[in-house]
Amino acid sequence: MRVAVNTRFLLKGRLEGLGWHNYEICKRLVTKYQDDTFIFFFDRPYDSSFIWAPNVIPVVVPPPARHPVLWYMWFEWAIPYFLRKYKADVFLSPDSYCSLRTGVPTVMVTHDIAHVHYPEQVPKLVSRYYDYFVPKFLDRADRIITVSDFVRHDIVQQYHIQIQKIDVAANGLRGRFSPLSEKEKQAVRNQYASGEPYFFYLGAVHPRKNVDRLISAFDQFKLQTKSKVKLLIGGRMAWQTGKIRAAYDAARYRDDIIFLGYMSNEAVESILAGALALTYVSLLEGFGLPILEAMHAEVPIITSDRSSMPEVAGSAAILVNPESIGDIVDAMKELYNDPQLQKRLVAAGKQQRDLFSWDKSAETIYQSLLEVMQK
C-alpha cells in the first residue's frame, strides 16, 4: 500500500497539538508497517529526523500552507497533482483538512470543530474558510477519525454526518512524563518558582484556553489563602491575547504569575511533574493532552466539566465550570488544603491513563486506511 500523508505540521522544534499527533502516529505507522510505502507531504523544507524508516519518501509540496488562500492552493491544486505523481493508494490527512479535487481514498483526522462553538475567536477570513470547507471536507472524506467520543458526537450533531463513518482514535502520551521524587520536585521549584509550590497551565495561550479566567482565579486564590503558591504558564502566546494581558495587569499578585513561553520537552516534563496541580480549565477541547500527561506525571488535575475533558480525566480531576472564576478558585483551595484529595486524584489517574495509547490509535487509523483502500 502506498500511503500519502499530510505532514505539514511536522516542524522541528515547533511541535504543538496537531504536530505531536502527526509525529506519534506517523512514527508508529512507518516503523510497524515497513512493507508499505509512506509519502510524506511537507509544505516547506523538512528536518531529516522525521524520516524514521527507509519506506518513507519525503516530498516538499509548495506553497507553504499557513493562510486560507494558501490552504486552498495546497489542498485543492498541489495535493491532487502530487497524489497522482506518486501513485498514492490512499491519503491520510491528520489536521482536519483534506482535498476535494482528488479521487484518492481519504482518511481525515478531525481534532475538534471549535470554530462552530467559538466563531468570534477565529479571524474572519479563517472563519469563512471553515464555514465553507469543513462540511465539504467531512462529507468528502471516506472515513473520519476523531480523538474523542465527544468530537465524534459533536460532528454528528453539527454536520449530520453518519456516526458509522467516524472512528475514535484517542491521543496517547508523548514524551517521557513520569513522577519525580520530593527532592527532584524541590529542585524544579527552585529553578522555576523561587522554591515555592505552583499551579501549572500547559498549552498555547489563546482565548479558548481560558487563561484570563485562570489568572483571575489564581489572584483570588492568593488573596483568600495568603499562600506563597505561584502560577506557571507554559506555552507560546498564540492569538487574541488581549484579555490575558489585561487579566495579568489587573492581578494583585502578578509577581507570582510566571509566563514561561514555549519550552523544550525536557523542561515541560519536569515542570509538570513538579507541580502542585495541572490547572487546565479550557472552554473546549477535542481531547486535552496535558490531562493525560499529568496523569503519567502523577500530578492532581483541575479541569473543565465540558467537551472532552471529563471523558479524558475520568475521576482523576476536580471538574469545574470554566466560565466561573469562583468555581476555579474553590477547586484550587480545595486541592491546596487537602493532601488526601491530592493522593486520591493521583491514584485515579494511574488507572485512567491506561485507557489511552498511541499504539492503539495508530492501529485504528491503519485499519481505516485499509478499509477505504479496499472499497
Specify the biggest β-sheet.
7 strands, parallel
Specify the structural class: alpha/beta
The CATH architecture term of the largest domain is 3-Layer(aba) Sandwich
**Total domain units:** 2
| CATH domain topology of the largest domain | Rossmann fold
Poorly predicted tracts of residues? none
Helix proportion: 40-55%
Overall pLDDT: 95
The side-by-side strand order for the widest beta sheet comes to 3-2-1-4-5-6-7
Choose one word for the global shape. Answer: globular
Q: Report how far apart the termini are.
A: 14 Å
CATH class of the largest domain, anyone? Answer: Alpha Beta
Question: What integer value in Å does the Rg equal?
Answer: 21 Å
